[in-house]
């Protein structure tokens, strides 16, 4: 959805936006995330060992990689043309109900839960986000995220 400005955007409070497009979680993504975060646990980065020892015989993405997809999902779901800057303010109630196997298709489902006026013409936006896995009932990640946005 596109909105011209905050005044228009505020009317969307309570809206669950259309899901994002599905996209694949590749081993390359997992490896890059591993290098960036220094989390090199074999369940993420060793496909040979995973094929032998993991229940699903594949590597799995880091839970925090799923969490890191949230900004992409929000940007794909909502655009406010007057937005000059947004700052992540915090996360609450983060859970990882189901692992993301390498090669899985995932998408985001974003709900605009709350909007509050702030100083300097800013707004505090509270989002509820689900990172869903294609053909799996449980989501990869559910989280409530707060951002401060400026126009």
Report on this structure.
Helices cover about 25% and strands about 35% of the residues. It contains 6 helices and 7 strands; from the N terminus they run βαβαααααβββββ. The protein has helices at about 5-10, 25-35, 40-45, 45-55, 65-70, 70-75; strands spanning about 1-5, 25, 80, 85-95, 105-115, 125-135, 140-150. The strands form 2 sheets. A 5-stranded antiparallel beta sheet has the order 2-5-6-7-4. It is elongated and about 55 Å long. About 25% of the residues are buried.
What is the topological layout?
Layout: E1 2-3, H1 6-10, E2 23-24, H2 27-37, H3 42-45, H4 47-53, H5 63-68, H6 70-77, E3 79-80, E4 85-95, E5 105-117, E6 123-133, E7 141-150
Parallel strand pairs: 1-3
Antiparallel strand pairs: 2-5, 4-7, 5-6, 6-7
């Amino acid at each position: 959805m596109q909105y011209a400005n905050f005044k228009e955007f505020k009317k969307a409070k309570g809206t669950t936006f259309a899901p994002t497009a599905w996209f694949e979680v590749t081993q390359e993504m997992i490896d890059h995330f591993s290098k960036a975060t220094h989390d090199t646990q074999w369940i993420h980065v060793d496909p040979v060992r995973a094929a032998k020892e993991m229940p699903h015989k594949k590597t799995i993405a880091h839970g925090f990689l799923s969490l890191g997809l949230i900004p992409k999902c929000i940007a794909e779901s909502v655009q406010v043309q007057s937005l000059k800057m947004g700052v992540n303010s915090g996360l609450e109630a983060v859970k990882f109900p189901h692992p993301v196997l390498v090669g899985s298709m995932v998408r985001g489902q974003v709900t605009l839960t709350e909007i509050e006026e702030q100083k300097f013409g800013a707004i505090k936006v509270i989002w509820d986000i689900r990172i869903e896995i294609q053909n799996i009932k449980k989501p990869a990640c559910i989280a409530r995220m707060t951002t401060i946005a400026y126009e």
